[in-house]
Predict the structure of Response regulator.
Amino acid sequence: MRILLIEDDNLIGEGLKIGLTKSGFSVDWFRDGKTGLNALEAAPYDAVVLDLTLPKMDGLEVLQQWRKANQDIPVLILTARDTLDERITGLQRGADDYLCKPFALAEVVARLQALIRRRYGQTNPIIEHSLVKFDPNQHKVFLRDQEISLTTREYNLLALFMHNKERVLTRSAIEEKLYTWDDEVNSNALEVHIYNLRQKLGKQFIRTVHGVGYTLGKNDEAD
């Protein structure tokens, strides 16, 4: 899942980017409101972590402009503005959740996971498909109830497929979700990750739709 982080504090921003990346998110970090406002048009993000006190444009103004443009991206506000009136204002302007500084990284992760589940219409935090269980809260994947070890990129790719179980995903759509602006992508990197997932979860688990892209299939042993 790809996250847009807009935070001007270098220490907080660096900590969030590292922590969220370790938790299975791909993170693009921008340090001012103007750049963050425009970034949403440039990539298919799954959620936004938004500070309010930002250079060039206040976070609430950024949020308000997104909502006026009918951007329905889930937005988690992180801010030191902790009065009740300010929290109410943030929610009324279109925020989906609100977390005051200082905060625990684990809570940011949990709230983002909840926002993304809601966006994709999933009520159960554990996603199942065929013989595979995907548990984002524990950052674990199980095949026939046996835990499977995945690399960070394999885990992120599986998360994308599990959140889009009924869709065929094009190569470009997958790469846009999987990689940030800072990543250097080899031409065959996606095929390598898909091959590795098939080796670990079943050769038919990710199905190629020729001329279109990829979608979830079934494990070799499943009916």
In short: The chain is about 40% helix and 20% strand. The chain has a mean pLDDT of 89. The helical segments are 10-22, 33-39, 59-68, 84-92, 105-119, 152-163, 171-178, 189-201.
